[in-house]
What does this fold into?
Amino acid sequence: MLNAIFAAAVVALSVGETHTVKLDDRTEAKLTLRKDALQIDWNCAESNMEYVNSYYKKPRWNVWAGEAVDCTFSSSGWIKSPTMGVPNYRQLTNPSNTFFTAFYGKPRPASLFTSKTVRSDKAWTVEWIIPFAGLETSKYPDAASEKVIPPGNVWTFKFSRRCETGGKKTLASSPVVVVQLPKEVMKPYQQIMLICYKGVKSQKAGVSVISCALRNTADSEFTGKAKIYLLAGKELSLLKETDLKIPAKGAIRIDQPVTLPEKAAKFHIRTVIEDRNGMPVRISYDLPIENPWVEF
It folds into this structure.
């Protein structure tokens, strides 16, 4: 009987298919599998949308109070157990599209995970896109660890919606949802692991050294490209593009000095690994680099 309950909880998705999770009679979350990402669409019906539209017309940065949709998910689930896998991510969005995302409880820039909110007269909706190439593989919290976290074929989700309109607080939540993704969809994103990723200060003023190590987990050689980008505030520029050839079950290290411009901006580094067809298969989180010119 117990095994039957576990089996019934597993949702097998093919590309283009959607599974709907109803939290209550006003809230649902739809999971849709794409070739390169998982899309989650929330629909939040609200009888007091006049208040919601008025209050959230301007940005409300505190996503921990008021209205919000909330999801914890893991790409390291287990098909026989409806429990949340480890490591996991958490995402929240409110009606003003304030978007919070964290990996294993550590907030850090994840611009690849996107959120888009639309408010109407009767409901507010949210669209989340979770690209497979943007899933983290460095072991947290020890980013220099040789251990890696390959994304799996079984994901687990826990959805909730917080509502505080009219002064009454309510919380609608789902049980853990276990989703099985096709092996052929996830395989390209399981080959190249980002072992460690860090920025080190150079002895030269204004220069940092970006270091990342890549491991090929497959039994065949990986050929492709590595692209390293500098983000200066919202400006994105390509620092370096290099051809990659990683032996089967082998690893390489890339060290790249970065001269930071004298600019009042927050600097980040993003590393993109593409296969031989130019498809991104691993994209790092945005690594913050200390600005030597400005104290923030």
